[in-house]
Amino acid sequence: MERRTDNNTYTFFFAVGMVIAVGSVLAYAASSLKEKIAENKRIETQQNILYALGINENEGSKAVFVSTDKVADEFKKYVTKQIVIQGNQITEDDQAYLIDVKTEKELSKSQGYQRKLPLFVGEVNGETLYVAPIRGKGLWDAIWGFVALDKNMIVQGAYFDHKGETPGLGANIKERFFMDDFIGEHLLNANGNFKGIQVAKGNADPTNSDKLDNQVDAIAGATITGDGVTAMIKSDLSLYSSYFKALN
What are phi and psi for residue 9, nearest 5 degrees? Predict the structure, then answer.
């Protein structure tokens, strides 16, 4: 007897079967790759933190991370402490690098929730540095970064990245010529109050020799992405200002 495949019942059960089969395959793949995904996240985050600390393998104008086979040892060598700031409470946590900044920003919108702020303390060439993760919105999608500061909130290094900014324009926030401009910039104003750093179009200091103006030169054709960098620096790094005031 010939099986009919052009009726609604067959179509329904075929669709259900396909959904179950595909769902099972995806669930298995997600489960089997879970450890690998977590390991890749660890490597990427630690590379970003080390880059901000100045521990990298840069060649000329190219930004190059510490290689994956070295990152774990280099992280242990240079990052001496990981802490989490939550309101007035400061705790040490050797897995603070796993805190999801995006999730914490969303949770902080709920009344009464105090956002967890991870901070990484490093020792480089005898100097204590502090690396804070930041996250914001560019022209098309998310942008984020890691900024290394000294106790006076002067930038000692930075790494920025993006999800979908325009190649050759906004995507250039992860290029050395842009990131290196932040080194030496002050986050505080002359009165010691937090001001941030503006990515300024038409900045009168294109070589960024003035480190007290709270500005760096913008990327041509990437105004909105630059504004996003300005905003995430101000909104996220300002949250650490009380901690740094206590250091001094």
Answer: -65, -45
